[in-house]
Amino acid sequence: MCTFIMQDLPTGIDIIINYEGYNEKAFPDPTTGGAPYTIGFGTQYYPDGEPVERGQLCTYKKAKEYLLHEVDKINKLLTKEVPNLNECMKEALISFIHSIGWEPFLYSDILDAIEENNWDAAVEEMYRWVFDQDYQVISSLIRRRRDEIDLFLTGVQKNSCGFSGQLLLNAFMLFDSSPNQIKAIKRLESGIHAVILAEFANEFKLSVLHQDEITV
């Protein structure tokens, strides 16, 4: 099962590995100076349920085994709780859950938002998890949440559109500023998350127009 997960969820695992980093020696929780100790790629409990203890060591290979065990466990819980997620959405949430824990995720508002297909609410809730216990923003968590949300929204786009990527290209080529076309574009834009629109504007080298500059 772990081998399958490693092949099936490469981006989600890459996000975890990138932001957790590999630690050969167990290190204490920064807020307590002691337990819970963390080792490898964010592991606090070994596969047998025993907690990581001070001074313990693990190889890079073992660290990956521990991570795959954790990912496998999260994957099973997530599949049972939300069975209709596509792979991009699942990978994003596995990394997110690995970061914050299963219980906090389960009792957050994210599940309700996903069940209602309210992607804006789900993303906004994910963005909230960037603080330490003193309510100070952790810069690495901001970057991690961005990567997770980008991956999650990629899954949303795949769920929302069964086209091959040619629909909008064809629409751009056929655009003639007719009222019906402008109405359709405005309706489409209102349903797209602001993060996606901002990235599109940047990649497309699109100047942001003010409302009074738009002619219909």
Main attributes?
single chain; 216 residues; mainly alpha; Lysozyme; 2 domains; two-stranded antiparallel sheet; 11 helices; disordered N terminus; disordered C terminus
Question: What is the C-alpha radius of gyration, as a whole number of Å?
Answer: 21 Å
- At CATH level 3, the topology of the largest domain is Lysozyme
Order the strands across the largest sheet as they lie in space: 1-2
**Biggest beta sheet summary:** 2 strands, antiparallel
Strand content: under 5%
The appropriate CATH architecture of the largest domain is Orthogonal Bundle
Helicity level, as a percent range?
A: 55-70%
Question: What is the average of the pLDDT values?
Answer: 83
Overall description:
The N terminus and C terminus are likely disordered. The chain has 2 domains: 159 residues, Lysozyme; 47 residues, no CATH class. Helix 1 crosses helix 3, helix 3 crosses helix 4 and helix 4 runs antiparallel to helix 8. The chain is mainly alpha-helical and 216 residues long. The protein starts with a helix and ends in a 13-residue tail after the last helix. It has a two-stranded antiparallel ribbon. It is built from 11 helices and 2 strands.
